[in-house]
Please model this.
Amino acid sequence: MTGLQKFAQLLVQGIARGSVYSLIALGYTMVYGVLRLINFAHGDVYMVGAFIAYFAITAWHLPFLPALLVSMAGCGLLGVVIERCAYRPLRNQPRLTALITAIGVSLLLEYGGQLVFGASPRKFPTDVLTGPSLRALNAVSDALKAHPGISVSTAQLVIVISSVLLMVALRLFISRTKVGKATQAVAQDRETASLMGIGVDNIIMLTFFIGSALAAAAGVLVALEEPQIDPIMGLMPGVRAFVAAVVGGIGNIPGAMMGGLIMGVAEYLVVGYISSAYRDAIAFGLLIVVLLVRPTGLTGKGMVEKV
Amino acid sequence: MSRRLRQLAIATLSLVSLCGCAGPGKKPQQGVILVGEFLSLTGTTATFGQSTKNGVELAINEANAKGGALGKKMAVIAEDDRSMPEEAANAVQKLINRDHVCAILGEVASSRSLAGAPYCQQARVPMISPSSTNPEVTRKGDYIFRACFTDTFQGEAAARFARNNLKLDRLAILMDVKNDYSKGLATFFRAYIEKSGGKIVAEQSYSEGDKDFRGQLTNIRKAEPDGIFIPGYYTEVALAAKQARELGLDVPLLGGDGWDSSKLMEIGGTAVEGSYISDHYSVDSADPRVRKFVEAYRKRYGETPDALAALGYDAAGILVAAIKRAGTVDGPALRNAIAATRDYRGATGTITLDAERNARKPAVILKLVNGHWKLVTQINPQQPIR
Model:
């Protein structure tokens, strides 16, 4: 393996990991866009997503794709319930109140999860990746394995492909549909949007639904590749995706995608060339640098605080 | 006014609850010898605690069937530390201050034994760790013992096997930098490999709880080793092994007793097949004591005991024998009796505790074949363990 091959390998792995961060970061950024709220419970929704798929596959014997959809729908509803019960009553309170509540919801999901699912890690079923549609991906993965620069597992191929599809779908939804445009309007100015006849509450609920469903998809996809799930598995990915959203420019959808990829690749390059001990230090260092140099993130436009 | 009242009510309530805690509590039960154990019944290394608990229970039941000790029955109180060192310290304090146990068994993981040991030492309650192998554990004080060998020997045993039997020259190490056991084992492994003319071509680290090792493994792959030593616990090892295979690293994997869990095969699948580990005992042994233990364990729990179950069984056995010899459960006398353990015939071999309160025993090398650990060879300690 040459130096270049090592670099290529780290890059490929970083992109696969980064696309997961992008999916999670989208939820942070969309919610921030409409509510100016950092939803700290988002990483835990990712965990619940993995567990729903786990039960869908092991208890209800669903194939992978339906299990993924069930998990996305389940977490979408969970997101709506969280918004309805925890955040909506505080909508006109100071932002800090909602932020603290978000931390509370996060703890509730983590420790509630330990109560319901148990603290021991469970094995996520990976033999679901055997259908005929996946044969092609398996073949690609096997062919690449011989190549020292770009070994990729089937699960990683599934991750990258699904992430790209979901992100393209989201992009089309936001920019092409009426509801998507309404979401943009709410993000730009909630009050004016409501004066234009947009049901702001419904749009906010929809935002939570979509963001949570994407987090669930990320949770299921990661569980495929790292088949060990436990109730606090959402903690670190949640934090890293949050950093990704801020780095990309919070509130900005393409920014979140880009931020996720940057975080994923940076993580691998740090582990590959410096040390795994600095993995998180570099992530947060990156956050500090971005906040110092470009407080609105890489893609952020200079925002004027509305008074 | 109502606020005043409420404050008063709260104050009264908290006073009442305080009295409840500090009040009579649990007095040492008469007619029963209470032994405490702290272990990881849940969390990342849950199978360690579960196996150990079964082993201890089996030994105590056998002792009770023969009339207990000092004319009393024995009972075990188990505290779960959820695989976390902070919780281990809490569990030990609970066992000592609330339950007034006469001795404590535990932990498996060295980090957690190290967290609990100072409290046992301070309260002069003897502690026997069944399976913590880091040398530092028994250095915490003269009330701290172990029923197993230390990593000074285990690391060397694994390295000797890699060099002499597998003829490996270029080795890579992937270790957990937040784990005393893993760091210690890596140090002693490296020392022997280098002393014997081999080379450590890559050394990479991770932290407990990590699930992604591809960056580190990419570095290891670049170094082109002929074997990888992963001195970690099964939760991380299984994922690391899987990812190593995905990255096209097909060299043999080696590890220590931290791999010994049925979860390793469940999560690692074919990726861990053919790996070698150093361990405390082999279930295949023809030794009648081992056979008797394995049969009794299978009958009671319906599964094959792993090394941690065997060591739990032996640690409890050593304690029972010491209580009988001491004739009392008084801390200092019991400590001296445990320290005087000579040629105790346990499931994991004949155990003599040395002046450093460590057991001196051979290690076995096991290979994973079709999901079962098969005995490959036994490695005896060459020089006395200091």
